[in-house]
Design a protein that fits this description.
heterodimer; A: alpha/beta; six-stranded mixed beta sheet; four-stranded antiparallel beta sheet; 9 helices; globular; B: alpha/beta; 16 helices; about 65% helix; elongated; binds adenosine-5'-triphosphate; binds magnesium ion
Amino acid sequence: MIDAIKIKGLVKRFGDITAVDDLNLNIMKGEIFGLLGPNGAGKTTIINILSGLLEPTSGSAEVAGYDIKTQSMDVKGLIGVCPQHSAYYKYLTGRENIELFGDLHGMPKKLLRERTEYLLENIALMEMADRKTGNYSGGMIRRVNLAMALIHDPEIAFLDEPTVAMDPQSRRATWDFIRDFRKREKTVILTTHYIEEAENLADRVGIIDHGKLIALDTPCSLMDKHGHENLEDVFITLTGRKIREDV
Amino acid sequence: MKAQRVQALTKKELLRVIREPANLFLVFLFPLILTLAFGVAFGAIGTGGDIQYSVAVIDLDSTSWSEGLVAELYNSGVLVPTPYTDAVTAHSDLQQGRVSAVLTIPKGFGDSVEAFTANPGNPSAWPVSTLELSLDQGSMIVSSVVPSMIQQALSVSLYGEEALSPPSPVKIGAPLMVESVKLTQFDIMVPGMFSYAVIFLTMIVSQVFTEERQQGILKRIAVTPTTASDIFGAQIIANLLTGVVQIMVVFVASYVMGFRPLGGIGGVLTAFTITLLLVLCNVGFGLITATLAKSSGAATGLSFIFILPQMLLGSFVPAPESVARFVPSYYVTKTLTNVFLRGADVLSQSTILNIGILAVYSLSVIALGVVLYSRYGNR
Ligand SMILES: Nc1ncnc2c1ncn2[C@@H]1O[C@H](COP(=O)(O)OP(=O)(O)OP(=O)(O)O)[C@@H](O)[C@H]1O
Ligand SMILES: [Mg+2]
């Protein structure tokens, strides 16, 4: 297996907060990798560094063989990023938001139109496609937010809590959609603090706490190793805390 | 820069202007309503007073005698002499109805009077000089009253009070009748409306950048292959297109309200050229505002730092030229006043100079805006 992402000794500090603490991690091409961790663990920071939004304090990383510091333009052409906080134009329709990002990636017009139709169909937004997103419900916005990241069918997708605020039905539809992504040998890095999401979807899971990678394996091996039925208990064993205080 | 990206971003920007009611109002409805409202309010109001007649006086003689004549005109209580130094301005003001008459006192006027006082009984010793008079022919009152008032003032200054019509060393030339275009207060304001319409783009641009930054959209765009020049380029193109529509709105609305600009097609082209330069400048101001402001609310307030001076010093509000020269909108208003109201040639030195000054000004501001925003704006 080829590595889609190689992270070596990555550190990111904000003042005296160490958001990412000496992270070493390789993610394989074609896998769905789950980054699991509580609020403030450093998940978003890792994605921001890999996608070129933040400069690491030290350490290095390669995305699809390109150095994130020196070849960031090459990296940007290959990745799709679904941000944790939905970012979209309220005055554009769902379709226009999605197509705009296809244009920004320089997609041929015909392909862009077909792919937009396909996505709208798959995220069940066809009916609302031509209404302004300002009028969408929270769950619909999450779905547009995801489609905007995947319009250009990226080689590597960074999905930062993609299913937050979705109803169970939309969440399952999104999971199917992400699995389909893997079938086509695409790589997905998914952050979540939904245990079921990591269990159901991820080929491998990395558990992050205080910026440190404290466990890394397939969901099954992690549960076996620690003798638990689910990842929640694994997490409690490892950190002495619940992953989400509100669960 | 890639055409597809710039085109997509430009389209998005134009949709924003059309679909966001606040923008639509500020950009198109506001100039439209303002032009129509000013047309109604000021379209019927003339510019000059109507009981006193102002007379432009060009005193080429500058002796105590000529000054005495001017004082006498003033004493009439009906004529208001206003000193002018050049004939061109005086006659253009006459054409526009700002003054009712132009009186030129020739060099040698004082000599004539002196010869006369030294030798009152001998007309052959007086060198004759002729006062030149141009009158607004549109006004019956002016053409009948003004020459006799001047004649009377002249007699009084030569012979003292209650003189009849003795022989005189000074003649008043046959008045030249000039057809003045009766400008209304509204006409005078229209050139400023062009500036006024586009200066609010500063606010729009600053809001676009602060909002997109606040909402995380700029970060989202930053993880695509989009470059800074795509973003700035699209912003400039979208605002220029918006400006074109704004200029058309002001043209159409002011025409409907009775404004008839001089200058023909060249004047129209000048209006587009110079106003679009002002658009560029305001895009630059918008970027500077977005760099300084933390939120879009703050941007709205801060943008008035750039909007107010342009509004008060360089649009239809009268302002002292010495300060006005520092605001970019002044150059638009001044040039369009020259071209539309005074009939100045569009290729005249002053028009070209103004366009040149504004071009340098605007390009510097937009360059500064781009640099500042790129360095400090994206935090
Ligand atoms: N720009 C920043 N400036 C200062 N501190 C930051 C910044 N971004 C993140 N941090 C800090 O870094 C740490 C990691 O934050 P991060 O957003 O990566 O966590 P996360 O795992 O994504 O959390 P969540 O589950 O809440 O999204 C936190 O303590 C956060 O306060
Ligand atoms: Mg996060």
